[in-house]
Amino acid sequence: MNSYWQSTRSPLYSFLFAIPLFLFYEVGIFLTTTNDMFVLRNGADALMRQILSSLGVSGLYWMGGLFFIGFIVAFILQRKYWAETKIHGDYLLLMMGESLVWAILIYYFMSNVSLLLMNPTGSLLIQRATLAIGAGIYEEFFFRVLLIAGISALLGFIFQWSEKMKNWMAMVIAAGIFSSFHFIGDYGDFFTFKIFMIRFLAGIALGTLYFMRGFGITAWSHAIYDLIVLTQMTTQK
Fold first, then answer.
1. Backbone phi, then psi, for 115, in 5-degree steps?
2. Does pTM surpass 0.85?
């Protein structure tokens, strides 16, 4: 079992495990493309598309294409470190079960503080499900992978902290940005300090899970959590 915990934290397993989630989202976007999907598309995805647009790269599908290309490049660059890594199909199934457990724990925590991480938008159920899945992969990729790495590098350059210190401080700062992000835009929440702190703690929890179990499991846990919330809201209507 130790081999499972060690192997599934690796970038290789995160890469393989995240691909289906990415494909679910992009196929869902393709099948539900309407004018309002430009507005409703997952916020972190939309933010990254706006950044690309400012650089002259625009279009609804550019973000997904570049994201997948980035995955392939990361896979190729790190492949030499994975020569001794063996892929176990049963590990991927265990990762799915583990993600479900983490998602339920996050749901239990958020339910007890009477606040949910996601607020489903979209007129069609498939739109809502697509956006819920997108939140898992794009928010975790942006707020955990990219933001933590960027802030950590900046803190290391300025303060010359140890690897562990700068990573954890970067995670805390990223959690604050993650919480603040939910108050931005037409679909953002009305700001209160209590809601900010609850989402900040959720960001800490997701950041800790990212450090412990890697990007793939964190993305799936977030996506499954959002789908649980969506199911609850849909069945209660």
1. -145, 135
2. no
8 Å CB contact between 178 and 139: yes
- 140 Cβ neighbours under 8 A, 6+ residues apart: 206, 210, 215, 218, 219, 222
What does each of the 237 residues of the chain score in pLDDT, given as a tens digit?
668 888 888 877 888 898 898 888 878 877 776 554 444 445 565 566 566 566 665 555 555 666 677 667 666 666 665 666 677 889 999 999 999 999 999 888 887 765 666 555 555 777 788 878 888 888 888 889 889 999 999 999 898 889 999 999 999 999 999 888 877 766 667 888 888 988 898 899 999 999 999 999 999 999 999 898 888 877 775
Buried b (16+ CB within 10 A) or exposed e, 18-54: beebbebbbebbeebeeeebeebbbbbbbbbbeeeee
Q: Which of 157, 188, 155 is nearest to 173 (CA)?
A: 155
